[in-house]
Amino acid sequence: MSKLIEQLREKRNLTDEQLKELIETDGYDKELFASAVDIREKAYGRDVYIRGLIEISSYCKNDCYYCGIRRSNEKAQRYRLSEEEILECCVTGYDLGFRTFVLQGGEDPYFTDERICDIVGKIKKRFPDCAVTLSLGEKSRESYQKYFDAGADRYLLRHETAGAEHYRKLHPAELLQEKRMQCLRDLKEIGYQVGSGFMVGSPYQKTEDLISDLRFLQELQPDMIGIGPFITHQDTPFREFTSGELTLCLRMVAILRHLFPEVLLPATTALGTIHPSGRELGLLAGANVVMPNLSPVGVREKYSLYDNKICTGEEAAECRGCLENRVASAGFQIVVDRGDRKNFK
Ligand code: SAM
Ligand code: FES
After folding, report:
1. Which fold has domain 15-335?
2. Quick one: which of 107, 109, 154, 161 is 20 to 30 A from 174 by CA?
3. Cβ of 69 below 6 Å from ligand 2
């Protein structure tokens, strides 16, 4: 084993210079990925947790330059699911073995705190053995507290990039990096299992930004880390930029597994979109979670964050079956489990 990977394994850390070398070269990939799989195996065996993703709204008041459902995209098709539709998705998902439901959406003012709490409460009442994860963007601490009191267990809010200058290039001035980071700290203090993360290969990203991402995550110590390639969307200001690269993304997954041995790390849909075996390769680089789509097929295409998103035509059961095979082909197995973060207190 090379000295660099040995040190990464032992210290669970590297200097900025060493990280730069690891991120920018492909010479370590093979041993880096094998070592990451070994670390995830010690923490989680060969188990893969599944999360049923329910995309509840494609309305958004924000205007992130990379995102297909940004408010200025007049071509975006807008929809929102009713409470009944969301609950139906959970019923279907439960029968398919899902024990975590992720409600994700744009920042849609229709979904008031009252509505969100109502939906969370109903899901938890009907499926007491399931976890509810929310991914609904930036809210006040009071709102996060209300959702938590209503029964929400986890919250996903990617920090997107920890580089201050880079953040400004990806977002309009009204969106503040400090606010997003404060949201993450609030969520942790309230007691959620918290997920953060970033896009790999987003426009203007430098290696230094990726290193800042790792340092920010080391400070935050999240329970989940979602990363995936930036993927071009034709109707956004970033239409001319190319999508992030598969290998860089896999390398970042493997580095994260070394820095955070017990973190929940998904092989994301975006990874599966830029390469036909992207999610399997993600698992073979240290990921241990997959998040198939449980949204009604009729709305899937409308939740278009980026071009050519996969799994927009399949029914939930087909997606589940397809993933079962993909996960098995990589040598892992899907388990029926809430899939909480190991040692979460
Ligand atoms: N509104 C919530 C939020 O801001 O966290 C959740 C929805 S948002 C669409 C979910 C994630 O999609 C973002 O955190 C971002 O990283 C990712 N995303 C958006 N546009 C993308 C693109 N073009 N390529 C890859 N990922 C993208
Ligand atoms: Fe709001 Fe993408 S700009 S979800």
Report:
1. TIM Barrel (3.20.20)
2. 154
3. yes
